């Protein structure tokens, strides 16, 4: 595993725009107050990462984000000994840094990671809030402000891999979904520069495609995908071409499904 693939540098927070859909901001703040970890489930591109960036900003915390994948090991999170010019030295991983600094550590798509990471997550995710570093013999007490946040997409492909109950029950959990139409239109206008009428058209198209269901598409069009389409349209591109490039092609490789998408596109643009 190449350590450079992990984000060891906290993102600079710059007042990122976030449109709340419910009580998620308050819930997150309460979880933080009580030192409880947070689990966010929801389809890809629905605003999970943006929400956490917003909350880190709001709480004035550093944020370490780790995009989990099936090779991700405990050492990638916690740290490892490296060999340098002056011999071996210990390098903290992003989780350890967050624990020491009282920052937020966000494990995106946590169920992709290897199962052995639960060994370090469990003592951190309950009242103990400790991180045992086996390699150095240290047992770190999480600094005030440390928060563990994990997310995953409970789509059908992940059903079998889901988190174990003993892990899930340590978290305050929130279910995210695509924003409702008025909110999604506002987000589109803000993020892509579309005017309100076009943003509404694109949201209506997105919702029509979402109703196609899983038989036709592996995954529904996300808010992110609508934003990409909206940016090209706002830049002056022909809307149908933008929808072909940002919707039909990314959503499926099946020519019949692409044709079905373009039929729906032509009803809207
Ligand atoms: P996820 O982490 O769920 O895959 P993201 O948080 O990266 O998705 O969302 C994709 C993009 O959609 C964001 O970069 C942002 O532009 C936009 N977005 C989605 N939901 C919201 C929201 N509630 N407020 C502001 N922007 C949002």
TrEMBL record:
InterPro entries: ATPase_dyneun-rel_AAA, CbbQ/NirQ/NorQ/GpvN, CbbQ_C, P-loop_NTPase. GO terms for molecular function: ATP binding; ATP hydrolysis activity. Residues 184-266 form the CbbQ/NirQ/NorQ C-terminal domain. Keywords: ATP-binding, Nucleotide-binding. Residues 37-171 form the ATPase dynein-related AAA domain. PANTHER family: DENITRIFICATION REGULATORY PROTEIN NIRQ, MOXR FAMILY PROTEIN. Belongs to the CbbQ/NirQ/NorQ/GpvN family. This is CbbQ/NirQ/NorQ/GpvN family protein. The lineage of its organism: Bacteria, Pseudomonadati, Pseudomonadota, Gammaproteobacteria, Pseudomonadales.
């Amino acid at each position: 595993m190449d350590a450079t693939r992990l984000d060891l540098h906290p993102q600079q927070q710059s007042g990122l725009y976030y449109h709340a859909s419910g009580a998620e901001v308050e819930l997150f703040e309460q979880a933080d107050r009580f030192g409880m970890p947070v689990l966010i489930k929801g389809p890809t591109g629905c605003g999970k990462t943006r929400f956490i960036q917003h909350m880190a900003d709001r709480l004035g915390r550093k944020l370490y984000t780790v995009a989990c994948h099936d090779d991700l090991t405990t050492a990638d999170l916690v740290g490892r000994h490296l060999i340098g010019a002056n011999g071996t030295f210990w390098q903290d991983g992003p989780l350890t840094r967050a624990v020491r600094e009282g920052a937020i550590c966000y494990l995106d798509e946590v169920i992709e990671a290897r199962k052995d990471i639960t060994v370090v997550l469990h003592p951190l995710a309950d009242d103990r809030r400790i991180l045992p570093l086996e390699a150095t013999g240290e047992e770190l007490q999480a600094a005030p402000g440390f928060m563990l946040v994990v997310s995953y997409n409970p789509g059908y492909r992940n059903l079998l891999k889901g988190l174990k109950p003993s892990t899930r029950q340590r978290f305050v959990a929130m279910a995210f979904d695509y924003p409702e139409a008025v909110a999604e239109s506002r987000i589109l206008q803000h993020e892509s520069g579309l005017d309100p009428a076009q943003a509404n058209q694109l949201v209506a198209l997105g919702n029509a495609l979402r109703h196609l269901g899983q038989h036709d598409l592996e995954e529904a069009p996300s808010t992110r995908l609508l934003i990409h389409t909206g940016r090209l349209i706002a830049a002056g591109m022909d809307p149908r071409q933008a929808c072909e490039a940002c919707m039909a092609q990314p959503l499926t490789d099946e020519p019949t499904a692409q044709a079905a998408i373009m039929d729906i596109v032509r009803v809207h643009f």
